Predict the 3D structure of the following.
Amino acid sequence: MNVNQTTPDEEAALGGWPEPAPIDNDLPAALPFDLQFLPSSLRDWVADNADRMQVPLDFPGAVAVLGLAGCVNRRARIQPKAADTSWSVVPCMWGGIVAAPGLLKSPVIHEITRPLRQIQELWWNEQKHAESEYAREKEEYDLRHQAWKDKYKQLTKRGQPVQSWTENEPERPRMRRLIVNDATMEALHETLAANPSGVLVMRDELTGWWSQLDRPGREGERAFYLQSWNGDTAHTIDRIGRGSIHVPACALSMLGGIQPARLRSYLVDAVIDGPANDGLIQRFQVLVWPDTPQEWRYVDRPPNAKAAAAALCVFERLVSLDPENPTRLKFSEDAQLLFIAWLTELERKVRDSELHPALASHLAKYRRLMPALSALFELADSGTGEVSLEHAQQSAAMCEYLESHAQRIYSCIVTPQLRAARELAHKIKTHKIGANGVFSRRDVYLKGWSALDTPDAVQHAAKVLEEAGWVRSLPQESGPAGGRPSDRYEINPRYGGREMSRWFTWQPPHIFKNPPEQEPSKPTKLGFDGFEGSVSRESQKIEAGFDGFVGSAAGVSIAVWEDGSMHVVVTEADAVKARDDGGTIYSPEDMYHYVTLTQAERRMLHQFKKRFGGKTEWRQA
C-alpha cells in the first residue's frame, strides 16, 4: 500500500493544506560502469582492484582510462574524418572521481597509477646514471678545453697558428617525466619543454586547484592549462634573467579526486556567465560520480599478479612510442560509419535548447572525446593503424556512460536559496526541527547547519518552501520576556507532527510460548529519546514516548516515515534473530530492541514475512 495515500478523515484533518510541491534533492540516475567499456588487456586488472578494495568499478575504470591518456598524450593522434586531414585529435584527457571522504578515492588512484609510478621510478634511476656519466664527461671536457686554452695563449704569443676548438660540450641529460604532482606553472612549462610527449598531472583535490585558478592574477596560468588540454598548442614564457622558454605543443592529461559538497559549492559560481565560465570544468570529461554501494564484504587475497603484469606491459609499450614520430590512427571503414552516426546524434543533442548551457558546452567537447577514447583503446590492445569497430563501439558506449555522470554533476547547479530550501526540507522530513509542527527562524539558524546558518538564509529557504506548500507563516509573537517577535512557520501535516505519520505493524503468526509468570510492570524512564513505556498483558500493547510509537508486544512493529527512515521494535524472541544490531530498550522477562534502518522498508518487510509468515496492516498512529 502507498504510504502517501490519505483517508477522507485525514484529508479533513489537513485544514486546507495543499499537496506539497517536490523540492527535489535527489541526484539523477547515472549508468554503472561496465568492464566491456575497457580494452580487453585491462579488464581483469581493473576488476581485481575493484573487488579487493570493495569500490565501484567506476573508480579504477576511470583512473585506468586517464592513465592510458597520460602515457600516450602526444605519442599518438587520430584523424576522426576519413578525408579531412586538418582535424586530428591528441588523446589528452582530464577527469577524476567524485565521492565523499572516506570512500577510497586516493587509495584507488594510488593503486591504479602504480604501473606509471614504476615506469617513473625506472626513469629516475636511469637519470641518476645519466647524470653521473654527464658529470664525468663534463669534467673531462673542461680539462681538455682548459688545456686547449692554455696552448692557445702560448702559440698566440709566439705568433704561431692555432687550431680552432671544434669539440662540442656534452649535453646535460633531460629528465624524462611521466607524472607531475605539484608544480608551479613555470616549472611545469619547463618540464613540458624537456618532455614533448606531455605528462600526467595528478592532484588530490581538484576543486582546491580550480579555486586557486579563479584568484586575481592567475589568468595567465589558467590560460596555460586551457591550452594544454588540446595537446597541440604552442606556449612561450618570457622572463627577465631566464630568457624565453618555448614549448611547441603543450600536452597535459590530468586526474584527481573531488568531494561532492565542494563540487556543488564550486559549480554554482563557476558556470555563471563571467571570467570563470571559460570551459575549464567542461574539459573534465572523464569525471565519474557513481552511487555509493550499500553492500560491502571483507576481501583478503593476493592481487592478481598476472593481470597486474599485463597492465604494466600495456603502459610500458605506450610510453615507448616516439613523440617525434607519433602513431597516427584512423577509423576502419565500419568504425567510420559508426562515428558518423554517433557524431550526427551528438550535434543534434548539443543544439537542444532545453539543455543547461554548461552541460551543452560539456557535451560539445565529446567531439574529440570519442575519437580519443577509440585511439587509446586500440593502442592498449596492440593496435597500430586502424581503429576497429569493436573499439569504436566501446568508446561510444563509454561516452553514453560519461554523459549520464555529467548530467548528475551539472544537476548540482542550483541557487543558494534553493540549496538552503532543500536542506530545510530535509530537516523537516527527518524531524530535526518542528517536532510539534511549528518552528521559528531562530530555531534553525542557531543549529549552524550548512546553508542555514544565518537568519537571512533561513528566511529565504522558508519563503521557497512556503511557495511550494511545505510551510506557512504564522502571526509573529514576542517571547515571554517581550522583545522583537520571531518569524514562525507551521509545517504541512504531511511532513510534520504525529497525526500524519504512517505506521506499519507486522504481527507474527505466533506469540510467546512461555509467558512470564509475573506481568511486567511499568519500566523506569530511560534516556533514549524520552522513552517511557508500559506493558499490559491484556492489550498486548507497548506505548512509548519516542516518535509516538504504538506497536505490538508480541511481534515486530515497523514505523515508516515519509523520508524513508524506519524504526523497528522487536518484541518476540525468535524475531530478534532477523533484526540488525540495535540496543536493548527494555528487558524485564521479554525482549524489546530498537533498531534504526534507512531506505529498506520493503526489503526488511520481505525478510520478516519470508522468515515468519504472518499478516500485515497499515494504520495511523
Observations:
- Confidence is low (pLDDT under 50) at residues 497-605, 611-621.
- The two ends are 16 Å apart (CA to CA).
- Residues 129 and 587 are 74 Å apart (CA to CA).
